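Q: Could you fold this chain for me?
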Amino acid sequence: MSRIAMPRYQHNIVRTRDESLGSRRRFLAALTVMTASFCVPTVVVDAAEQNDRVAIAVSAERDLMRVRMEMDVKGNVNVPSDSLISRKSELTLPIESTAVLDYEERYRRPIDADPSSEITAIERYYHEAHSTRKLNRSASDFRLRESVRHTHVRRDSLPETIYAVDDYFTHEELGLLRVPVSSVAVDQLLPRDTVAVGDKHRPSCATLASVLNLTSVETSTVSMRVMDIDAAKVKFELSGKVVGSVEGVPTSLHTVGKLTFDRRIGTTTWLAMAVHETREIGKAEPGFDVAATIKMVRQPMPKTVALPVTPDAMAIETEIPQDRLYIDLQSDKVAVSAIMDRRWRMMADLSGNAMMRMIENDRSIAQCNLRPLARLEPGKQWTLEAFQADVRRTLGKELDDLVEADQRVSASGLRVLRIAAHGRVEGVPIQWIMLHFSDDSGRRVLATFTMSSDSSEAFVGADVQLADSLRLLQTDDAATSQTTANRSDNAEIGGADAQVANASRDRNSSDLRDNEVQSASDVR
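A: Sure. Below is the predicted structure, expressed as structure tokens.
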């Protein structure tokens, strides 16, 4: 399965039990109305005896569906000391999580495409999307914001890509919505030949990757068996093991489940699965060993409820617009936020230091350290020349050359000084880009990008994006001053990498340990 939904759970609003029950009753009432709308069969079926062979006729006309999914997860999260150095777990934490998603989705195909062709684009509106989680001793509750409930989904490649129409997701929100079973692809599990009770069917590896939302499936022993047939339904059970990967990270799954195909409306309307997944530690995410149960109900809809009546304009046959694939990243400790390429992950958020990494297909491309600096007097600013001199002092013998130096005013009104430098660390060619942000009140933040010389092509433009989008959030002036006081400008710029690395290795501080765990962007 693509992602065990240990959904992103921070900064949520706690829902009461009555609210949850009310929501479920409203959903069931809606399903009753929708089912009644389709009480006249669109596929003519005959009553089936147990030994009769029947066709599994999936309807290509059902392009508007209402889906409810409930997930429960229990197991352990494996956290490394530094995922760039080793995949070995240094800390194992128990986790329990529940999530509920209720959404309507409209399937889209290219113009003139065969109605039975694979669905590669979807419009979706989330009526409900929330999760509760207990990680170690820390409990949290998380809910999708209103501004990102209307979404588009693309399945040109897997795992599927989801983006909001009107706003940008956080990584926590993306994690909540990346479910372990695709409601779009579930009908792909069904055999295309006629079946009788007792028949067995082996879904292909490609089908399982699509249904379980995995990047790839290398091997599979999953098989399906027809358990019961009547005039209305065909019931299947499935079981087996899948070995695959998600964005370059190996994973293995043992699964058992049941699904019901409704012969009258030509689609799968019910699925229940139990999954045991073991995923290795990746460079962007902790590993885990968890057991999950997933329940899904699907029904066709006669008309939209929250989606626009007229389908959104979607360039289905072209690439996803890059400006929709940004992510809203925030550091609570440094009190900054930025809109960045979603390959960037906030890996650590400690007092006085935050660290992001750019990771693609489990390969680390670059790192960015964020640090608050001691305030200047209001109205005073650092000059570009002073910044250059300080960078030279900080890098010392590791510096080969300062290759670029410029300044600008960002869209949010911050003054930005930028310096690009080349050098060597223990003989390895390194590139640095340093951004110094300041406002008129004297508040300052330093961002230091570090990357190897062969990563510059993948990195290109990330510093410009940060310079244009970084915002200073409200903070306690006294706390900021205390954190950064008594440091020379030289000390402010140098040593951020070492401080974060040393902090991550300090297992004697329970408070620090909690901070590290909570900063992992995509615990699943």
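A (continued): Confidence is low (pLDDT under 50) at residues 1-21, 23-47, 478-524.
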